Structures are given as C-alpha cells and as structure tokens.
Amino acid sequence: MKFLDLASFAFVFSCFSAVACVSSSDIDEGSAVEEPPSNGGTGGIAPDVTVQGGSSGSGGAVVLPATGGIGGIGGTAPVIGMGGSAGAFMDAGMPMMNNPDAGAPKGPTEGKVPALMAVGYGGLRVLSRDGGKTWTNRQILAPQGGDDQNLLRSAAWFDGLFVAVGWKVMTSEDGVTWIERKKTGLHDCVTFANGNFYLKNLRGGDAKVSKDRGVTWTDTPGGTVICNSNFDSLTNGNVRLRTAWQGIIERSEGGSAFKKVYQDPQENHPNAFNTGWAVP
Predict the structure, then answer these.
(1) Ordered alpha helix ranges (H), 36-188
(2) What average pLDDT does range 102-118 have in this prediction?
(3) Would you kindly state where each structural domain of the chain is located, as residue ranges?
C-alpha cells in the first residue's frame, strides 16, 4: 500500500485537544498562544479509510484505498491549534467532510440518518439526506433575506445538536425543530470542545461560549477559539456542493459538471454547509 503525502491531508484533519479544530494552513505560528505540550487524541475506527498517526503537531494521514482500520495517536505540539489528532474520520454511514472540525460522531445518532445542512439569508435552514441530491425541511425567518438580523452565516453539528449562527443563534436536536436562543453580536463560526459550544466572529474576534448545550451564551476570549466554516461550498467524499445567487445549490459527483439541485422559492441565498445527523 502506498501512503499519501501527510502534508496534502493535514489541512483536513489537523486538530487540537484544548479548544477547537483547525486546518494547519489557518495557523499563524508567529502569533499563536503558547500552551503546555499535549498529545493528540486517539483516532476512531474509520470504515472506509485507514488512518495513520501523525507526529510533531500534525494530524493523521489518510491512506487510500483501504478497508477499515484504527487511527493512531496524534503528535504533540506546544502551540494552540497545532496538536495532532489521528483518526479524524466519522464512523460508519457518516459523510466525509472538508471541515477541520470533522471527527468521530460527537453525540447520539440512534434513530437518525446522516444529513447535510445548508443555512443562509432570511434564516434559511434546509436538509439533504441523500448526499445533496434533494433538499427538504426548508425553514426560513423571512423571504428574500439580506444582510440583516435574520442572516445565518454558519452551522455545525456536535454532541447531537445542530447550531446555526449569525446575528441569531438557533439550535436543533433533530435538524427539523429549531429553537432560537438569546445572544448578542454577529458570529460566523461554530465549534465544540471540552463539552462546550463556541461561536466566533472570524473578522472581529468576538466569541461566545455555551456550557448548557446552546441554551445560554456568555463572552469568552476570542483569541483562544479557533474554528472554520464551509462558506459557499463543501466537499463530501466525491461529492461537491456550491451555492449560486437566487437561492441556488449546485452539486457535482465524481468530477462531473455541476447541476442545480435546489433553488429557494423566495431566493434566500445559502451561505454555508455542514454535515450532521437528522431524523429520517
């Protein structure tokens, strides 16, 4: 078996155990926060790939093709955001994703199916359960939304919970029923670490933390929160998704030409994608 170059995959699987996950290309080593050395976590069982442990602050390298294997131990690193975490691949049935927050499922999945989530203008939330071919369970806050209080900039799924965020923050246990929570400020990134949810404004640095599964949010130092979002596109295995204006989602599989698979009836533009688990 030929091992692929570790560097070519580190941007997907480089994680750290202190606060959040991030691709190595997003780290500014010159301004990174110093932390005590810490080992990356042990990788989970990967059904479609074999994950080999990395070293010296890099995540595990993915080896293709291969049958399932157990991830190794990630490397150590003295800098936040550089600690490796091997085996960062979701378990059986979970779609692969290019978000560096990808990892073993972080919550209950019984009675649920793998899903793709898109969020956007007008508070748009819409789900796909077939790899992006069809989209259902559309919900909005307002038609033809703009850069206003209803805008949702990002979404993620951790610990069995979808969190969609912009000026508002909304949570869902199943991807269908949503609850609006109270917070202040604009945020465009969601991540999860040490049992807590974090929001961050990637341009302004403002950050919030929730220690009660998204019910309440309080200020936290933005410099300690590193996260990433799938703005406007997502690569999911051999499937690619991207957005287009007038509320359009386009899909490509196996390198084929992009085809329109969804158009919002009120032209609410999708902003970001992510993966999770939803009710059938």
Answers:
(1) none
(2) 78
(3) 6-79, 106-280
